[in-house]
Amino acid sequence: MEIDKELFKKMFPNLAKELGSEDNKIVINSVRTSAEKAEKAASEKFHHYSPSVVDFIRRCDTREQAEEIIAYLEKRGEISRESAERLRKQLKKDGLQSFGSRKEDNYYLKHG
Questions:
Q1: Domain that includes residue 89, residue range
Q2: How many distinct structural domains can be found in the chain?
Q3: Residue 42 lies in a domain
Q4: What average pLDDT does range 42-64 have in this prediction?
Q5: Full DSSP string of 32-60
Q6: 100 with 54: CB under 8 angstroms?
Q7: What value does the mean pLDDT of the chain take?
Q8: What distance separates the 2 farthest-apart alpha carbons in the chain?
Q9: Could you give the CA distance from residue 31 to residue 94 in angstroms, rounded to a whole number?
Q10: In the chain, pLDDT over 70 holds for what percent of residues?
């Protein structure tokens, strides 16, 4: 089915604007003919990846949540007392945003 561009713009102005925008472009850098191979390649991005304390902090909405993450990882021995103190100092002095932008829900599923 073919439709005139001007008629399409009149009928669907917002959709036409979105389609013409550069903001919604997706780069395709490879093509796979096997769904199994494609799934394997897509899931390997975070394969063997272990999130750091900063990755966990970047999932937080509040300073209190970040403080809980730091305390929990310190208690489990996953970060040293010195590291925990540095993180607390940064959190207090520079705020939550100093660790980077917030990682949205399902970040690893969306970007994996």
A1: 53-111
A2: 1
A3: no
A4: 78
A5: -S-HHHHHHHHHTTTTT----HHHHHTT-
A6: yes
A7: 80
A8: 66
A9: 43
A10: 70
The DSSP letter of residue 72 is H
In a domain, 62, yes or no: yes
CA 81 from centroid of its chain's CA atoms: 28
Express each pLDDT in 69-98 by its tens digit.
999 999 999 999 999 999 999 999 999 999
Exposure class string for 18-45: b at 16+ Cβ within 10 A, else e: eeeeeeeeeeeeeeeeeeeeeeeeeeee
> What is the chain's Cα-based Rg?
22
Alpha-carbon torsion, ordered 22, 40, 50, 69, to 10 deg: 60
Amino acid identity of residue 85, one-letter, is E
* Residues 6 or more apart whose Cβ sits within 8 Å of residue 100: 54, 58
Q: What percent of the chain has pLDDT over 90?
A: 33
